[in-house]
Write a structure and sequence with these properties.
The structure is a single chain. The protein is mainly alpha-helical. Helix content is 62%, strand content 2%. Strands 1-2 form a two-stranded antiparallel sheet. A hairpin with a 5-residue loop joins strand 1 and strand 2. Helix 9 crosses helix 11 and helix 13 packs antiparallel against helix 14. The longest helix is centred in the last third of the chain and has 20 residues. 46% of the residues are buried.
């Protein structure tokens, strides 16, 4: 799973886009997006129960997991093979298993920053934010130039509501960015962290580096770039919101929907429109991509709202 857990669908034609937007508008107005229950998907073991009380499951092993597990058995002290297995497990939402895999790796490679990064990343998906923070801080101490460690550390701070520290981590990550893709990725989370910290002027300044010349290369960053244009006032919410996923198998559609819906919902919170933000968050958590950042962020907002 990539850092942003968002995949890009092909850019829609104007006609198709109009149909999609109409469908999305209907779902938002009615507060309804067809629930993608786990009954529609063959699932593996229970990974966790969400703060909203929903049981969240892994997917069964695929060939990538089977092959990676065999490679670790053949080379049990290979960091490369351990990381390969952990990432294959995470791709099947087997996050508890991925944490166990990286923990085993750390028994023979206790100073490996990649293992701490990988384990911290997966703990975020398990909603173990403080333990994730410890792993990610350890990774930054071992490898001070590791952009991904600061990026995920920012998420750990963000999800516990420590927005100032989240912004500091993203500012550090962005300083290490060597490409437009990294700039886009880090700026999105820097902006939202600053807005949630109440630092509107600094957030606006963060957007200044997203010029018309900034383009994404990695397809999944298209939606973060669209959100940044939305934050700049260059696109409307209707223009950036993608269509809802077509069903449980529409992983790319769901990830893009989660990413943008959470971003637009966040923006509505900044502007005092919490009711419509909650509508978006509710639609996100009806999906299956419970390990996406947009899903986790939406879940946290709904949990807070229910208290």
């Amino acid at each position: 799973m990539s850092r942003t857990t968002c995949s890009m669908a092909a850019k829609p034609t104007p006609t198709l886009r109009s149909v999609w937007l109409l469908l999305l508008a209907t779902s938002v107005v009615t507060g309804y997006l067809p629930a993608q229950t786990s009954n529609a998907v063959t699932h593996g073991p229970l990974e966790l129960t969400s703060p909203l009380g929903r049981k969240l499951y892994a997917l069964p092993d695929d060939q990538a997991v089977i092959d990676a597990r065999a490679s670790v058995s053949a080379s049990p002290k290979s960091v490369e093979q351990v990381l390969k297995l952990s990432k294959a497990q995470a791709a099947r939402r087997q996050y508890k298993e991925a944490v166990a895999t990286t923990s085993q790796g750390l028994t023979f490679a206790p100073d490996n920053a990649d293992l701490y990064l990988e384990r911290g990343h997966r703990k975020l998906g398990l909603r173990e934010f403080k333990p994730a923070m410890n792993d990610l801080e350890h990774a930054t101490r071992i490898a001070p130039q590791m952009l991904d460690a600061y990026y995920h550390l920012g998420l750990a701070h963000y999800f516990v509501g420590d927005f100032d520290q989240a912004a500091a981590s993203y500012d550090r990550a962005r300083a290490l960015a060597k490409s437009d893709d990294n700039l886009i990725d880090c700026t999105n989370w820097l902006y939202v962290s600053l807005r949630r910290a109440g630092k509107e002027q600094q957030a606006a300044q963060a957007l200044a580096r997203i010029t018309p010349q900034v383009k994404n290369t990695e397809p999944h960053l298209y939606f973060y770039l669209q959100l940044l244009r939305f934050y700049q006032g260059k696109l409307t919410a209707e223009a950036v919101l993608p269509p809802p996923p077509t069903g449980p198998a529409d992983l790319e559609g769901e990830l893009s929907f989660d990413t943008v819906s959470y971003g637009v919902g966040n923006w509505r919170i900044y502007h005092g429109d919490r009711a419509h933000a909650v509508d978006l968050f509710r639609n996100v958590v009806k999906g299956e991509a419970w390990n996406s950042w947009g899903f986790i962020g939406s879940e946290i907002e709904l949990a807070h709202a229910s208290k």
